[in-house]
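pls ignore typos typing on phone
hypoxanthine + seq
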Amino acid sequence: MQNPQEVQSAVAALRLALEDGGADLSRAPVALVLGTGLSPVGEALLAQPGSVRVPFAALPAMPRPGVDSHAGAFVWGRINGVPVLGQLGRCHLYEGRTPAEVCMGVRVMAAIGSRALVITNAAGALDPLFEAGSLMCIADMINHTGVSPLTGLNCDAFGERFPDMCRPYDPEFRKLARGAALRLGIRLEVGVYIGVHGPEMETPAETRMYRQWGADAVGMSTVLEVIAARHMGMRVLGISCLTNKNLPDCMAPAPLAEVIAVAGRAGETLGRLLWEVLPELAAA
Ligand code: HPA
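k done
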């Protein structure tokens, strides 16, 4: 189901709160979603003088993340001079949220005016050559959640009935991110992300299958939000923080505490990359 009325009511309240706080929305902000363990990097980058924070709880119909590792607020601010609207934390299908609820943040930021989306997550590495703690630029994705945020009557104001997905992640954005990483000496892998429903982690047979399907990293978010973003014509850059290795022949538990700790460390690198690339994304 698509939910234009809920999105409109959240947008009206968010716009008011941002403008009351002094945010300058005359220039469309880049939308930035920060996933598991990555809210601190968003806070560090965005919580500068002049930034405006609006908790999801202050907005009608805005679902609040049910897991502790997700903050649950929008923050408007500038990163390296670029106006950014950050979504700190997200909801997941595994919390019992609907696809429309999972995509509310992205729908809201698009309605505020964002045309570019930087979306991040914590993910397990399926490519045996990818190291925990490194970053992966998402080149393509597999939606293995079993659902779509576009199910039901189409909202034509959002986008068309059958949106094209031949380039879900923007090739120019990817090139800019790779160039920025090279300049900074940051190792940035490139690969395919598979989004699963969760919350259980994968069995060895599942990880073997996902790898054979062509996936390089697995996580429990992002794919539905990217479908919604593409539905609305946003250009998308996706970055996974690889928090653990997920290999069928040497499976090891990846407890949440470890995922958050590794995401926190990779988040510092992510922060440097975002600082470098945002002005280029905003100008592209
Ligand atoms: N699997 C699914 N989701 C994840 C993982 C994983 O290995 N790591 C971080 N999020």
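Residues 122-124, 201-202, 218-220, 243-244, 246, 254, 259 surround hypoxanthine (CB under 6 Å). The mean pLDDT is 94. more later
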